[in-house]
Amino acid sequence: MTTLGIIGAGNIGSQVARIAVEAGDNVVIANSRGPETLEALIAELGPTARAATALEAADNL
């Protein structure tokens, strides 16, 4: 299973995350406001996604 790091959780980043999760990939997603602000998106994406800092997401690029 591939892990995809995404920096930016706006319209494009969140859509890329949805597509990656649907394809069976793990997702690590970050935004400029901090991982705690991504709770709703992570709940929507499911257990193969997690919020992180930009540095943590970059480790998965």
- Indicate the proportion of strand residues: 15-25%
Rg for CA atoms: 10 Å
Strand order of the largest sheet: 1-2-3
Structural class: alpha/beta
Structure description:
The protein is α/β, with parallel strands linked by helices and 61 residues long. Helix 2 links the parallel strand 2 and strand 3 (49-51). The model has no long low-confidence stretch (mean pLDDT 96). The chain has a domain at 1-26. It has a three-stranded parallel beta sheet with strand order 1-2-3. It contains three helices and three strands; from the N terminus they run βαβαβα.
Walk me through the topology.
Blueprint: E1 3-7, H1 11-22, E2 26-30, H2 39-45, E3 49-51, H3 54-58
Parallel strand pairs: 1-2, 2-3
Quick overview of this protein structure:
This protein has helices at residues 11-22, 39-45, 54-58; strands spanning 3-7, 26-30, 49-51. It is of the alpha/beta class and 61 residues long.
Any key phrases for this structure?
single chain; 61 residues; alpha/beta; three-stranded parallel β-sheet; globular
